[in-house]
UniProtKB/TrEMBL annotation:
Name used for this protein in its record: DNA mismatch repair protein MLH1
Ranges where the record places region Disordered: 357-404, 649-675
GO biological process, one term: mismatch repair
Entry GO MF terms: ATP binding; ATP hydrolysis activity; ATP-dependent DNA damage sensor activity; mismatched DNA binding
Coiled coil: 538-572
Cellular localisation: Nucleus
Lineage: Eukaryota, Viridiplantae, Streptophyta, Embryophyta, Tracheophyta
Bias (Basic and acidic residues) ranges: 357-371
Organism: Sesamum radiatum
NCBIfam families recorded: mutl
PROSITE patterns referenced in this protein's UniProt entry, alphabetically: DNA_MISMATCH_REPAIR_1
PANTHER family recorded: DNA MISMATCH REPAIR PROTEIN MLH, PMS, MUTL (PTHR10073), DNA MISMATCH REPAIR PROTEIN MLH1 (PTHR10073:SF12)
The family this protein is said to belong to: Belongs to the DNA mismatch repair MutL/HexB family.
Domain DNA mismatch repair protein S5 stretches: 236-358
Amino acid sequence: MDFEIENPDQMDVEELVPKPIHREPPRIHRLDEAVVNRIAAGEVIQRPVSAVKELLENSIDADSSSISVLVKDGGLKLIQVSDDGHGIRYEDLPILCERHTTSKLSKFEDLLSIKSMGFRGEALASMTYVGHVTVTTITKGQLHGYRATYKDGVMEHEPKACAAVKGTQIMIENLFYNMSARRKTLQNSADDYPKIVDLICRFAIHHITVNFSCRKHGAARADVHSVATSSRLDAIRSVYGVSVAQNLMEVEVSEDDPSSSIFEMDGFISNSNYIAKKITMVLFINDRLVECGALKRAIEIVYAATLPKASKPFIYMSIKLPPEHIDVNVHPTKREVSLLNQEVIVEKIQSAIESKLRNSNESRTFQEQRVDPSPSVSISMSKESSSHPSSSGSKSQKVPVQKMVRTDSQDPAGRLHAYLQVTPSSQLQGSSRLASIRSAIRQRRNPRETADLTSIQELIREIDSSCHSELLDIVRNCSYIGMADDVFALLQHNTHLYLANVVNLSKELMYQQVLRRFAHFSAIQLSDPAPLPELIMLALKEEELNTEGNENDDLKEKIAEMNTEMIKQKAEMLEEYFGIHIDPNGNLSRLPIVLDQYTPDMDRVPEFVLCLGNDVNWDDEKICFQTIAAAIGNFYAFHPPLLPNPSGDGMQFYQSAPSRSPEGGDASKSADDVNKDEVEHELLLEAESAWAQRDWSIQHVLFPSMRLFLKPPTSMATNGTFVKV
């Protein structure tokens, strides 16, 4: 079949030209207020870290001295920020989360002299449009706090009275629950938690008078924990580590010429020894965390031109300008600001950094370390020198084939020491250089291992002078095998086995750590403050077996009252030096962290408080510090849990009721014969968990810490702490 194709040139041209469609211009209409607010909220709260930044700034504006952040699922499920600031008035709660409600300014001209972090009154309102917000707050003088929930800028119910600690807690749940596209994007992208941690680290090194902490929901240990300090460098060391702090140089620039610029800048910049893959720049302008692309590029140019391999620097800067020379209202999230004479300021800072780097680049520091030969190497060397008196001649000896390859990990000839030129041990012992290196290593392990008071220095010198050298060698080089019973652990040192009393060892370790960390403790916050009189009464009742009549109870109450008053009088000293916080009402609310990754047995708090009241000599400074450190050491020691060990004979303690023999007598059963139905399962699980946690802590916390920090006293060689098997 033939098909006839029409020539396109012959087609009607009019058919190819589309006919215009007449359309009316779209009408402009006013958006619903809820739509407007949700769009605005998406600009202000771009991701979870944006919400955390706004809440941190609010807490700082509230004159907080402690801020803690709790995050779940990168902030999408939960963001909780708690502070101890001045709180929110009850009458302000209904309008708290409405847009453009703020206590920071009242007219536009106030922006010219604004000093607070927030000023628009948009942050909390925006959070209510993209999440569920709950606010709990209490102000000074109130007997209780109030809790209110908010949605779409409106308080859902009347504030409810509730128990609360000083300050404000704001909780955001299900962030972006009504913005499915953004929520999916954030869920599919990298977790926002590292960004939140980085943000808090930046705030912590600038606001050094505020305690910051941040942890994931369900985690026992905080990922960021900074304490208030008077030194910026100490804050950087605490947050970013010793490796960063030891390679920083202080830089200062100022200008007071009204015709060009007026500003002051102080900060820290990394030197030529600092090595990093990417730049870290922390910039605060008038105490506001911001970014400045022009300044960052200028600094990168200086480092690329001055240092080898285009080193990526660490930069911390705080720039102060007159408030009228800065415009803070140029970015939805206040991430950027506009500066008057910005080019001049950037140029002067760039010149100062370049000058500082060039002066520091004339010399570079390299860490050196001499190698102390092991005894086995020294012995082998002496044997060789005696058997080959001519070995010092010019003729080199042939190395045996078996010595050229490491075939035995225990053979000293296969270690690196055997191939290095070594210095005799007698010379090393008199070398001040080696002592300084060891001191530097100790400082890196515990950078706060210093104390200013003479009494503390004397106590630490006593620890050093009474250290038993052989026991120190055992502690430093032993291998942990396991627990032989509830108190003794089995250790191996060289070819010998030892039984070591973990209670005595941990008590001495904690005592020494308290003295070394004197006045530089992190804190354990108790969920509920514990009244001192009740704690002391508990301890007295545990000690007193005979509880006859009211006279004995009255005596106990009198003792508790006297000890409480004594401890309250010393509360300021206990908090400043030992991190033990007692509020004016006599409630214990904070305890010190003596050993990282370890929390003491809270069942022993009553005994500890009683020791503070009864056993401490408050009259002599040195004895006072010594007895307090001993009380803390005893409290933090690895005592056996109060519940009997469920393994072995201790299992009989968890029987619900004793069984009877057919004759009516008691049938004594072993642990294996106990009927499962007769066991108190909840108590048993609690005991098993406590004992398992103790065993784990002894292996993974106590012994690694002993190897680093413990200096066993001479008394441990004779008091049964170490028993050679």
